[in-house]
Design brief:
Elements (H helix, E strand, L loop, with lengths): L1 H19 L3 E4 L1 H11 L1 H22 L4 E10 L5 E4 L2 E4 L4 E14 L1 H68 L5 H36 L6 E4 L3 H7 L16 H22 L4 E14 L12 E11 L7 H67 L5 H36 L3
Length: 436
């Protein structure tokens, strides 16, 4: 009985330790970006697309290399074909026949194959560009998600501080009211403000949980894992304050979307080249080796079975002559598709230039807004402190004090949001210019 209890206890402890064992992570923003680029689910599959494209490239290359095949054919004749010779029936075969063969074939010239080799390189380049685009998008997603978590944490800290300060003021005001020195309305006004702070605090805590799980998902880690962020919102903001960065020259060729549009145009050009190559002749050669065996009984695997060998070399030349203008129609379609791709490339270039100007303007505005919000916060803080002194001394109404508090709370949130905006707008601008 004691032995059974000991086993049960050890199993319980083992299960408890297994359940308590949770992965823990600690990341700066750059460490978070690096981790996501390797472990984000979309990034992983984008890497697999590249590996698949490499295999596809080799598959295309292999079609022009020597091909070897082998086979074994067996035939059972239920009724043997016969012929008359000198008035007699002569059988033209045997009841059983078997052929073992090997074929070596080699493509000598085919214009379509040459174009296919070029297309396979473009195909691979497309997925490499797609992977690069995925990386830039993931980088921006991590920065935004990281900033949202920091924003929620800072908001909670400020709300907790405001709650503590207001709770003390409310307690003092209630004592003053009990002594009959102020009206009950002053107490009620503070209670309303405190209730609003409590509601906002609870909501922000819920938002923090959602923002943290969203960041974990972007990082490619379990949403229940422990995660600690080592960077602070104010330090990240200061490191992203760089107006000189937005004054640089924009090179559209560096943008991955432009590179993808170029890749698309190249694909259309190769498709036109492919249609034209179909008018060229193709030449292939093959070498065949084999053995035949015949018999009235199935004895092909016996030692006394005779096998007759054969071999030959052959060539195949295919010359397209006339396709009722079908080939011409396909070529014209490919020409139209190429012109469309060229137009799309020009449109992409103009769109990217516009996006750059917009992202640059938004970043510069974010920097200006940060300075304004910081100044407004200092002013709102001084006004609130003055109103608190007047209120406690009976020189100001609860409405004036509450208005000053709301103004301060709004200024606090605006200041925090302005810091996040600088980080996010800088990331958006870096995405356009393809800065890693």
């Amino acid at each position: 009985m004691k032995k059974n209890l000991s086993i049960i206890f050890l199993l319980f402890v083992g299960l408890s330790q297994a359940q308590d064992k949770t992965e823990s992570y600690s990341f700066s923003l750059q460490q978070a970006i690096n981790h996501a680029l390797e472990h984000n689910y979309t990034a992983i599959n984008a890497g697999r697309d590249i590996e698949s494209a490499k295999q596809k490239k080799w598959e295309t290359t292999a079609t022009g290399l020597p091909q070897i095949s082998a086979g074994l054919d067996y035939q059972k004749n239920f009724e043997i074909q016969k012929a008359f010779f000198n008035g007699q029936e002569i059988p033209l075969g045997a009841n059983h026949s078997m052929t073992a063969r090997t074929t070596l074939s080699q493509l000598i010239f085919d214009g379509s194959y040459i174009v296919a080799l070029q297309a396979s390189k473009t195909y691979l380049k497309y997925y490499e560009n797609a992977k690069q685009k995925t990386n830039t998008e993931i980088r921006e997603m991590v920065i935004n998600a990281y900033g949202n978590v920091l924003l929620a944490e800072e908001s909670i800290a400020i709300l907790e501080k405001n709650k503590t300060t207001l709770s003390k003021t409310l307690g003092d005001t209630q004592e003053t009211f009990k002594n009959g020195l102020i009206e009950e309305e002053n107490v009620e006004q503070l209670q309303i403000t405190l209730a609003i702070i409590n509601s906002n605090l609870n909501n922000t805590k819920r938002l923090l949980d959602v923002a943290t799980k969203m960041l974990k998902l972007t990082l490619g880690i379990d949403i229940n894992a422990d995660l600690k962020l080592t960077d602070k919102l104010d330090s990240l903001t200061l490191s992203n304050l760089d107006l000189a960065f937005s004054s640089g020259e924009f090179t559209v060729d560096n943008n991955v979307n432009y590179q993808i549009a170029q890749n698309f145009q190249e694909q259309r050009s190769l498709e036109l080249k492919l249609e034209r190559s179909k008018a060229l002749p193709s030449l292939a050669a093959n070498v065949n080796f084999g053995y035949n065996a015949f018999g009235d009984e199935f004895r092909f695997f016996s030692q006394d079975q005779k096998w007759l060998n054969y071999s030959y070399v052959g060539a195949s030349l295919n010359v397209p002559i006339f396709s009722s203008f079908g080939r011409h129609a396909r070529t014209q379609q490919a020409k139209i598709a190429l012109e469309q791709a060229k137009t799309q490339l020009t449109e992409t270039e103009q769109q990217l230039k516009l996006q750059y100007e917009k992202a640059k303007s938004e970043y510069e505005f974010a920097v200006e807004e940060y300075a304004t919000s910081k100044s407004n916060l200092n002013l709102a803080d001084r006004i609130e402190r003055k109103q608190e002194i007047k209120f406690t001394e009976g020189l100001s109404s609860s409405f004036d004090f509450s208005e000053a508090q709301r103004q301060l709370y709004t200024a606090q949130q605006n200041y925090l949001q302005s810091m996040v905006n600088i980080i996010n707008k800088k990331a958006a601008l870096e995405k356009i210019i393809n800065k890693n």
